[in-house]
Amino acid sequence: MSTAPYYTILSPPLPTNLVLSDVRINKKIDINHDKQLKSLKTYVELFQDRKSFWIEVAVLDRLHYKNINQQRPFHRFKRSMELRRLLKRLKSLQINKELERLYISFWDAKSLDKCTSKWNYIPSKESIQYTMHRLIGAALLLDKIKIALLETYRANSTLLKLEHFVSLAIVYMGICSRLYKLCHIWVNQIEECYHMLYTWSTCFPSGLKNKEQKAFNAQHNLQCDADTLKTVRTQYAQNALKSKSSIQHKVHLETYLANQSVVDKVKSMQKEYGISNGSDSEDIGEDMMDFEDLGEVIER
């Protein structure tokens, strides 16, 4: 299959025949469908209850617009711009709406309010696979966001050593810390939901006839295995590790300044071997900080 997987497409089209009659469900597989449906409802509610996450994103947006004119030239601000871009992409994915669509398809309803009686319909296998691919896309985005959060945190931590924009740096670092924790929780929930849907998907038939299914598979890649999510995330992590600039190039000066243990180690080595700083200051990083500071002064 040469077509791109659906999780790599920005807005993939929905398959046809998403809802089927419940009489077509595979009764030979021993699965408690009511229990699975209850679990799906739990994930729908969990994914909708992201108020704390989006509040942090709103504060990040406010900081961006308030400081864009002053902070735009600095690389740490460009890190936060990349972070905002990924967060907007995650928001446009609307993974909570996708899970809600799958849930209400058991009633063939248009809203959750109508899903109160006994369910009489089932989603097609293509419908569940579509949702699983959207979950993979959300997990990959959250992995990218976690990396961007670490880089933004690291870039702003240098301001504490430089004593520039300290209050702004503390706010950014706090937002990054909280968002990282929330992203980690969300990814774990996505992984659990994916495996639940994969196990359940074996009970649902295809909504397409044999000829239609062959034509559809030739143009659309909705293939999902039990380890697809894990494999894709692992592959992305390996590629991200290889492309890290800190591996291909020397570590930037800011890492040296931000890591106090490195500074202390250099001090002890200088004292042990009698190496002089060439300066009256006892701070090993002072001259280097002045050099780093000069760039910001010129930019301002």
From TrEMBL:
Q: Name one GO cellular component term.
A: nucleus
Query: Which parts of the sequence belong to the Nucleolus and neural progenitor protein-like N-terminal domain?
Result: 33-198
- Which one Pfam family would you cite for this protein? NEPRO_N
PANTHER family the record matches: NUCLEOLUS AND NEURAL PROGENITOR PROTEIN
Q: What name goes with this protein?
A: Nucleolus and neural progenitor protein-like N-terminal domain-containing protein
Q: Look up and give the organism this protein is from.
A: Mucor circinelloides f. circinelloides (strain 1006PhL) (Mucormycosis agent)
